[in-house]
Amino acid sequence: MSKWIATLVLASLPAIAGAAEPESPPADIPADLPPVAEVKPEDFVYVASTRPDRIGRVMAPVSVNGVGPFAFVVDTGASTSVISPRVVARLGLKPDPAQSKLLRGITGSEVVPGVAVDSITAGEITLMDKSLPVVQPRVFADADGIFGADAFSQGCLYVNFREASVFILRTGCPRVGDEWETLRAELKFGGLPVVHARVGRTKVLAIVDTGAERSLGNRALLVAADLEPALQDPKTRRQVFAATSQAIFGNLLAAPPVNVGSIAIDNLSLVFGDFEVFQMWGAAEIPAIVLGMDVLGTTQALMIDYKRRELKILPQGAPDTFRIRRNATPSRLP
Description:
Elements: E1 6-9, E2 15-17, E3 59-64, E4 67-74, E5 82-83, H1 85-90, E6 101-104, E7 109-112, E8 114-122, E9 125-133, E10 145-147, E11 156-160, E12 165-169, E13 181-184, E14 186-188, E15 192-199, E16 202-208, E17 216-217, H2 219-224, E18 237-241, E19 247-254, E20 258-260, E21 263-265, E22 269-272, H3 276-280, E23 288-291, H4 293-296, E24 301-305, E25 310-314
Parallel strand pairs: 1-6, 4-10, 16-23, 17-22
Antiparallel strand pairs: 2-18, 3-4, 3-8, 5-10, 6-7, 8-9, 11-12, 11-24, 13-25, 14-15, 15-16, 15-20, 17-23, 18-19, 19-22, 20-21, 24-25
């Protein structure tokens, strides 16, 4: 292995489970990988809005080296795009030890193989000559990869949950009407969108993460919200899995109302824990949350404008007069 290892942040995709021990993914790409399954419309929910018993993720068709489409998670909480071993095998690529990556996630860090690709394209955005970490698909719901924040430096992500469509644009988002709410966003931690929010009466730093199933809170928020007594109940204990093979324990607790602009969630449970990623972000000592699809998916539509550094929200029930420009087509799986 090369002594030069790039450090990447893949902070999202947390899932919670019981106390079962996690499987450790293989260090190498096995030779007998299953083929990439053909994606059919009847087999795939492209974008699903959140309901109490169902959490949707934003998915998009992505081509790699001109081959595809593959089904990738569009993940605003991942600082880099990644690829699954089965797509690597499908393309006949070989990981290069000199391109190994140090992958840092919610629960820990590990070194994963890297592979060079000529191009990766989603919507209007194409990344050229990229080295992509090769990550086991079980950590991102068996998708073919992740299209991360490294692709959106001046672009726009527009997701309409009601119409089950997503647009990936290479320039800033189009102008919208007054029915949309605009929040100022900062790009931090490798290009992740961050906004200000409230949990109860507590002001929090909120990382907008379309790849996370559940929202996460740090220890500082737990203390500020006076939820420490609830830790005594062993039934709240949950095992948290993320992009790396490590799993740690957190506590699933009923939270005070969460408010992000006009989004107001009264009956939300957050997973609280000493997650490594908050320390890495320098946000361990201030109340902070990762906003997952259990919050974001309650909107009718949202836009993240990376050029203007804005989060635009269309609340449920609001009249939507916005129409994307005619020459832009939504990214849909075939």
